Amino acid sequence: MAVSKKIKKMMESASWIRKMFEQGARLKELHGPDKVCDFSLGNPNIEPPLSFTEALKEVAGREPGQHGYMPNAGYPHVRSKVAEFLCREQKIKITGDHLVMTCGAGGAMNVALKAILDPGDRVLVNLPYFVEYRFYVDNHGGILDITPCREDMDIDVELMEARITDRTAAVIVNSPNNPSGRVYPEETIRVLVEMLEHRSREIGRPIYLISDEPYRKIVYDGIEVPSIFPLYKNSIIISSYSKDLSIPGERIGWLAVNPEADDADELVGGVILANRILGFVNAPALMQHIVARLQGECVDIEEYKRKRDKLCAILEEAGYKFLKPEGAFYLFPRAPGGDDVAFVNRLQKELILTVPGSGFGMPGYFRIAYCVDDAVIERSREGFKRAIEAVG
Ligand SMILES: Cc1ncc(COP(=O)(O)O)c(C=O)c1O
Asked: What is the pLDDT at residue 287?
């Protein structure tokens, strides 16, 4: 056997998103790419803003040595720039000392977990959740616990509390949520942090709140994502430029430790060491120079809003049941007939690619990633209609 038993098992249970991607490639080969409506991946279709391309040109070849190693936490001036922006965005006081540049949000989550988990520690996440968390937690010897959500996909804090044990090291919250598009209201976060404070005291260790926020800027209808730092001291915020600047392939993001956290400096030190020894060493140099110049920039959210509204109208007309997404670029309807895998297969007959809710721990639903051309959404109209009619 070429790979370990553990990896073999993971490969077998590999993510639904990848499976759909592969089936999609097969369908595209068979029918032609313009015939397939591919809603399977969260790969932004909007091009990065012009300011990104301009910064890229400006920065390239500018200074000798700019492609060399650097401090593992990232360039000090870049960390300061990001921290300055965070002060405004999250209405908090933070400096570059509590900020580490990372290889995307995925890299940031791994360094956070590496820094805080001992083998056998548990991490809690509410449904539905980004499937990679299970692998990330396992990477660092942890165990992922899942808690159900409310009917409206909000966090059920009572149920979450019931899952906390004396080995719970962290809770992950992802808002705007992939796959539900839900933005958790401030009131929910307040109740959650009250519970975490109380339970941390009881078990005699801090339960960290890790807020995964790569979609923070992609929100609609004037909704605001609550800031975690002012509400809970033992918190870590993770983000990236993958979605809001449409540059997921460039692998650039950051992690911020709440300066008020217990032993905050030690935690930052642990995160920096983790960044180094996980093999990232540091976040990509060129991209750090670029994002430092683009703080606050974002692709045009109105474009995603237009796509959301178009897709909502199509699904509503066909009779699907779903909550209108408040952020991110995903829609998570109930699977007609109740069997998400069967329904996703039925949609494939219409050359529509989506991902079963089972891939996000929530059978009975399916995810539509609408970060695609408007024409794809329009083309899917009849297929969505036929598929729901076929199920009855
Ligand atoms: C909720 C969530 N967290 C993290 C990531 C990873 O993002 P990045 O490309 O910045 O690593 C994704 C990517 O889809 C995501 O949806």
From this structure: 97
Question: Do 96 and 21 share a structural domain?
Answer: no
* pLDDT tens-digit map of 139-165: 999 999 999 999 999 999 999 999 999
Note the pTM of the prediction, 2 decimals.
Answer: 0.97
Q: How far is the CA of 375 from the centre of ligand 1 (A)?
A: 25
Q: Are residues 175 and 232 in the same domain?
A: yes
CB of 253 sitting under 6 A from ligand 1: yes
Residue 208 in contact with residue 245, Cβ under 8 Å?
Answer: no
Residue at a domain's end among 235, 258, 293: 293
Residues of the chain with pLDDT under 50: none
Residues written for the chain: 392
Pairing of strands 366-369, 330-331: antiparallel
16 C-beta closer than 6 A to ligand 1 = no
Same domain, 89 and 229: yes
